[in-house]
Write a structure and sequence with these properties.
The protein is α/β, with parallel strands linked by helices and about 550 residues long. It has 16 helices and 23 strands. The longest helix is centred in the middle third of the chain and has 16 residues. The site of alpha-D-glucopyranose has 9 residues, from loops. This is GH13_16 / GH13_36 / GH13 / GH13_31 / GH13_ 40 / GH13_17 / GH13_23 / GH13_29 / GH13_4 / GH13 _30 / GH13_35 / GH13_20 / GH13_2 / GH13_21 / GH13 _34 / GH13_1 / GH13_19 / GH13_18.
């Protein structure tokens, strides 16, 4: 079995500016995060993914940056960053950072120079057209908030390309000088000690754009180059890429020999998880896992329920999407970009602790490495009064104290959620640390079990026929041993027969994690599950594994 650290990781995604403020200016910072590392270590997190930390005008939460080689002064200094890396090392925690290289901010000095002078050395670092391209209104990523993908630049009286908002001009990756510079950026951060990157908008990075045609040539070989460059600098570094593309295309991102990007978010499965939870049916996931393409051995999926963006349901059929909207985001205000839901998980599931735990066990039971968004471990909610995706980007709720213990300042980067079922008096770390029944305590129990079960990250996965619509059964085998995950997505108790094929013996299945104490699973012919119940059963473990 090829073993890669990222196949057995638990990745925790956070935005420094909303995690912990250390200097009282109302903005979370690197020192604040460093002071919370013991919390993350105790939670069972092995890798932290930081949302963009670079200088930024902040019009897309840092995904619009003005300097690849610096830390936003509001968050701290490069010195603070290196100290953070060091303190992570001390705790055996790895750090990965967002790599936003499809575009810069329009305030980046490269773009400022490019638009100011046709002879600028940076002119060709962006994608221009002398006239309005015929497809200028196509391909928008943020419908309702983004007018087109080409905008007129008055200064140079020409049009520039931008996949995202108009203030995020796309870099011209066809220009080798751009690729070389990005190579230097990557090398810089690896040298500072990061274990890899979360690559933003990977498909857009590698598409070659021409103003006169909507056809786009995809340069997958640029990913090979990037991978080589990273591997030369740090052999075990990971790139976890965002590529919300059809499944057939995903394999191209991993590379036919696993020689491009080692880890991809599983967007398709994310949507199927919500469909399964909405319908109380395992069927969507049975199909999703069975039809999931085989990926190269060293490659890995990253699973997630919630991230820093809306839940993108555009991969579902219309009736499926309607079911998910009806159940989890019925109000127009909860929906975004005609395709998604801008809510956190706990309120979507009505704050029901059993359903929330089931949802997370479901995520952890699927093939791949789990990524968890900060605040999900305590069941934080959203603030729909905030614009677009900011609804789910409110400060971490540390305590029932002013500003949720996030900051002593009167005004914070975004308001903390203070009222209602998900306000900080009701939902916070400190109270949950003292309560063994809390969601946080549950996370502290489940994550170590997950990490003791490398089968989930890197074993061979087989979907079992549970003969029950609501019950998902997955079996994982790898040289360290075998495990079963059995989950009841319905709300009625069931008993299922999972006895192995004739001739196969499965030793003495032992519950390693379950929603309650169940009678021993014995020969697996009558496995009991409560409504919303789940069981992880270890079938065998290799000696010493
Ligand atoms: C990615 C990020 C999103 C951002 C966009 C533009 O999709 O996840 O938050 O707005 O890229 O960088």
């Amino acid at each position: 079995m090829p073993e890669r650290w990222y196949q057995q990781a638990v990745i925790y995604c956070l935005d420094v500016e909303t995690f912990q403020d250390s200097n009282g200016d109302g903005v979370g910072d690197l020192r604040g995060l460093t002071s919370r590392l013991d919390y993350l270590a105790r939670l069972g997190v092995s890798t932290i993914w930081l949302n963009p930390i670079h200088p930024t005008p902040g019009r897309d939460d840092g995904y619009d940056l003005t300097d690849y080689y610096a830390v936003d002064p509001r968050l701290g200094t490069l010195g603070d960053f290196v100290e953070l890396v060091h303190q992570c090392d001390n705790r055996g925690i790895r750090l990965i950072i967002d790599l936003v290289v499809n575009h810069t901010s329009d305030e980046h000095p490269w773009f400022v120079s490019a638009r100011s002078d046709p002879d600028s050395p940076y002119r060709d670092w962006y994608v221009w057209s002398p006239t309005e391209p015929p497809n200028a209104e196509e391909g928008v990523v943020f419908p309702g908030y983004q007018r087109g993908t080409w905008s007129h630049d008055e200064q140079s009286d020409s049009w520039y390309h931008h996949r995202f908002y108009a203030f995020q001009p796309d870099l011209n990756w066809s220009n080798p000088a751009v690729r070389e510079e990005i190579g230097r950026v990557v090398a810089f951060w690896l040298e500072l000690g990061v274990s890899g990157f979360r690559m933003d908008g990977a498909p857009f990075v590698i598409e070659e754009v021409h103003p006169d045609t909507a056809d786009r040539v995809m340069h997958y070989e640029w990913l090979n180059d990037l991978r080589d460059l990273i591997a030369w600098r740090r052999g075990d570094a990971v790139v976890l890429a965002e590529a919300n593309v059809p499944r057939e295309q995903i394999l191209e991102f991993f590379g036919p020999r696993g020689d491009r990007l080692p880890m991809m978010f599983n967007f398709a499965e994310n949507q199927q998880m919500f469909l399964a939870l909405a319908r109380g049916s395992a069927a969507p996931l049975v199909t999703a896992v069975q039809s999931s393409p085989a990926i190269p051995p060293a490659a890995s999926w990253a699973t997630f329920l919630r991230n820093h963006d809306e839940i993108d349901l555009s991969g579902l059929r219309e009736s499926e999407r309607a079911d998910v909207f009806a159940k989890f985001g019925p109000d127009k205000d909860m929906q975004l970009y005609d395709r998604g839901i801008r809510r956190r998980l706990a309120p979507m599931l009505g704050g029901d602790p059993e359903r929330i735990r089931l949802a997370y066990v479901l995520q952890f039971s699927l093939p791949g490495t789990p990524v968890i968004r900060y605040g999900e471990e305590i069941g934080m909610g959203e603030d729909l009064s905030l614009d677009q995706r900011n609804a789910i980007r409110t400060p971490m709720q540390w305590a029932d104290a002013p500003q949720a213990g996030f900051s002593p300042a009167e005004e914070t980067v975004r308001p903390v959620i203070a009222k209602g079922d998900f306000g900080y008096p009701a939902v916070n770390v400190r109270d949950q640390q003292r309560d063994p029944e809390s969601l946080l305590s549950w996370f502290q129990r489940v994550l170590p079990v997950l990490r003791e079960s490398p089968e989930f990250g890197s074993g061979k996965c087989t979907v079992l026929d549970t003969r029950h619509e609501a019950v998902l059964g997955l079996r994982y085998d790898c040289p360290t041993g075998s495990v079963l995950a059995v989950l009841n997505l319905g709300t009625d108790a069931v008993t299922v027969d999972l006895s192995p094929q004739p001739g196969v013996t499965d030793g003495f299945p032992v519950d390693v994690f379950a929603d309650r104490d169940y009678p021993a699973a014995g020969d697996l012919s009558a496995v009991e599950l409560a409504g919303s119940g789940y069981r992880w059963l270890r079938l065998s473990r290799a000696v010493g594994a």
